[in-house]
Amino acid sequence: MELLVVGDVHGCVHTFSKLLDEHWDSGKQILVQLGDLLDRGQFSPETLLYAIELQQKYPDRACFLKGNHEFEAIVHVEEGNDNWLRQCGEETLKQFEKKSLELASYMSWMKSLPLFYETDHVFISHAGISQSADHPFEESHPESVLWTRGRLKHIGKLQIIGHTPCQSGRAEFDFESNTWNIDTWAYRPNGLSAVKINDEGQVTEIIFVPTLAIDVSG
């Protein structure tokens, strides 16, 4: 089945919804979102709730992966995470409080998110398989699929990643590792990117939806 892979949303729920309304055929495509639903944009709670709603409505057609921002939020709730609070967590918590919601209520859902989605032809994760990672699925490791920003390994199939924003502001392809990076600074604001992939693992369309002003201005 064809895949629609969507990059880092970062609280830009209206832009995310617009992209799906215009480009996702839930009867023919599996949605895979790369993680980092939370933080930076103005609508982290709404983005999280929208993702949960989609997964409940389309349990076999909507897959949300864990990103480092979900991981950091989990660590904060369970152990305390001052680094996340300083970077963007305080604003995210204020957004939840404004909606009379508790971030802690969604821990079980966030903890259950998979680290990757894989077919015979494509491997999809938040940050990719690093050339130097001995334990790519150890969530706290700096070279894991949640965190790495270094050179990626050619794994014999196409990789799709986000995490490290593309400096061009558009999706970028790395020939050495056979990887598409589709993090295009949705919250900057710039835009939200996605790719469609056919059953043979070929990218058939690159999608770019400019960030809607409401998502970054409130």
UniProtKB/TrEMBL annotation:
This is Serine/threonine protein phosphatase. Residues 65-70 form the Serine/threonine specific protein phosphatases domain. It comes from the Bacteria. The lineage of its organism: Bacteria, Bacillati, Bacillota, Bacilli, Bacillales. GO terms for molecular function: bis(5'-nucleosyl)-tetraphosphatase (symmetrical) activity; phosphatase activity. GO terms for cellular component: cytoplasm. It comes from Paenibacillus pinisoli. PROSITE patterns: SER_THR_PHOSPHATASE. GO terms for biological process: RNA decapping. Pfam families: Metallophos.
